[in-house]
Amino acid sequence: MAPSVEELTQHVLKGEHRALAKAISIMETRGQSSRQLMKLIYPRSGNAFTIGFTGPTGTGKSSLVDKTIEEYRKRGRRVGVLAIDPSSAFTGGALLGDRVRMMEHTLEKDVFIRSMASRGDAGGLARAARNAIRILDAAGMDPVIVETVGAGQTEVQVATTVDATVVVLMSQLGDEVQAFKAGFTEIGDLFVVNKSDLVNPSKTMYNIASGLKQREDGWRPPVLKTSALKGTGVAGLVDALEKYRKHIDEHGSREKMARAKIEAELVETAYSDFYRETVDRLKGQKDWDLLVDRVLKHQVDPETAASQLARTIRKLDG
Ligand SMILES: Nc1nc2c(ncn2[C@@H]2O[C@H](COP(=O)(O)OP(=O)(O)O)[C@@H](O)[C@H]2O)c(=O)[nH]1
Ligand SMILES: [Mg+2]
Q1: Which residues surround ligand 2, an ion (CB under 5 A)?
Q2: Where do the structural domains in the chain lie, given as residue ranges?
Q3: Residues lining ligand 1, Cβ inside 6 A
Q4: What is the tens place of the pLDDT at every residue in 49-76?
Q5: Which CATH number fits domain 44-251: 3.40.50.300, 3.60.21.10, 2.20.25.530, 3.30.365.10?
Q6: H or E segment and range at residue 115
Q7: Which 3-state string (H, E, C) describes 190-235?
Q8: Which of 46, 101, 128, 185 has the most CB atoms around it within 10 Å of its CB?
């Protein structure tokens, strides 16, 4: 017999890896018990410091997360990691690479690493990721780290979920300029120029820093250099992350940001459920095909047809 959601929750709270994987799968597939599971998990979450690593492909995010796990382990912390890579939906290659690279940690008791693949729906992935973070948080992982690629919708949504966003860049081919055009400036709380063993990062660091302003709460996003290959600069990164954690706690910005995050999540989640229900209801109407036909034949314009549909839905809601 499959364990009940209550039993599963007990195992999750003990940090058992198999239970964590199962619970995350349930949130990922939005299985029947996903709502019930979150009802039990949520009250036990909210303790972890959550960190997002994002940036263009190939800058060394996975490698850096690896070293960051090591550094946190040295400091006696239990670490949860979610690797989200939209490209894996097409090739699976990146994901597999990440998995292999992070493998040495997966065997450790106090490190849990899980890849989450996009199922084509960015909103759905962000939703699953938020709940997966809560599962690792409730299991006592602190910090919980999320790796994403690029600055697309999912990344921005994930960035608005975590406490701290680390933007990972490297100094090659003027990438940093492109990266900034791609919208990383807005989402970064800390910036890292990785692969400092290959190219002297000073110029890139300067360019990035000069594009950053001090925030309202007094935080100026630091620009750090690392070599994930050699492990240099990683302790400094973790120090900076902990400094940021302290800063947002002391300046009340964590609380303020948390409120904004919850508001965004509630709107997105309710909207997404509402959207799905509405599509079903619209298409379920007896006149649906007829209406589509009429628009197709230019007998009714789409604007009029849509407003007619909206009126009908409202009437159904009574
Ligand atoms: N020389 C050097 N190579 C690195 C460094 N960090 C990562 N790499 C290499 O860059 C490639 C991409 O790294 P990966 O961590 O997968 O990047 P991601 O796509 O951002 O997750 C791999 O071949 C890594 O071994 C670094 O600090 N120095
Ligand atoms: Mg990666």
Answers
A1: 61-62, 98
A2: 44-251, 266-317
A3: 57-63, 194-195, 197-198, 227-229
A4: 999 998 888 889 989 999 999 999 999 9
A5: 3.40.50.300
A6: strand 111-116
A7: EEEEECCCCCCCHHHHHHHHHCCCCCCCCCCCCEEECECCCCECHH
A8: 128
